[in-house]
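Journal club prep — side note

Before the paper discussion, L.F. wants everyone to see what a predicted structure for a comparable chain looks like in C-alpha cell form. Sequence:
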Amino acid sequence: MIDSQNMKTPMPRETALVTGAASGIGAAVARRFWERGANVFMLDRNVDGLRNVLSDADGCGGTVNTFQADVTDGARLGDIFAEIHRLGGIDHVVHCAGVARLGTVTEMDEATFDLVMNVNLKGTFLLAKRAMPCLVSRKGSFTAIASDAGTQGASGYAAYCASKHGVVGLIKSMALDHGPQGVRCNAICPGFVQTPMLDQLFADSPSDRGFYEKSVPLGRFARPEDVAELAGFIASQAGAYLNGAVIALDGGSTAGYFSAA
C-alpha cells in the first residue's frame, strides 16, 4: 500500500524514510523533514495514523509518500525499498518504530521477550540491511532512535533495555562498517518522551510517571519535537562529521545522581 500527498516524479532533493511515522516521535521527525522541503517516505503498521499525519503535509515543498509495513517483515521491506529505488532513492533513514513492555526476566513470558527483541533490535537490522545499498549510493545517513535504556539498565525493563543496548551496539558496528562507504550511522538516546506509547506505559501507574519526571534535571520529559530537531540536525550538513555517535537526549537524567529540590 502506498498513499501520497503531492505525489509526482521525485525531484533531485533531499529524501528521507521515517519509520514509526504514524504518531509520536516518528510523526514529528517526518514533519521536520517535509518542513525543510525534503521528500519523505513514512512507514508504519497503522494505516489510519499514517493518513492522519499525511493530511498535515498538504502544501509542503516535497513529495510525501506512506507505506504500510511491519519492520519485522523483511520481505515487505525489500519490496518497499525496490519501490523507493524506482522513485529515486533516499538520503536518510530515521528509524523510530519500537515497542516497550514491562517486566523482569522472571515475570516476562518468552513471547513478550521475543516481540520486544524482534521489533526493536531485529527490526533495526532488517531495515538497515534493506536500506544500506540506497544509502551507500547517495552517501547518506542512518539514525536509530534508541533510548537511555540502551546505555544503562532500568528496573523492570529487562527486555526493553536488552533490545536498546543491542541497537546501540549495532549502530556502532554499522558506523565502522559503512563509514568508509560514506554512510553515517548514529543513535539518539532519549529518556521518556511525551508520546502515546508513554501514556500507555504509565496508564496503570501514574505515580511512576511522576517519579521518573522528577528525576529529570530539566524538570520535564522530552517532546517529540525535541527528538525531531536532533534527528534533523544529524541528517544535515551541520552534522556531516557525526558517525558512530550515541547522543543522550534526556534532560540530564543520565549525567549522574540527581536529587530534586
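L.F.'s comment for the group: Residues 110-138 form the longest helix (29 residues). Keep this in mind when we get to the figures.
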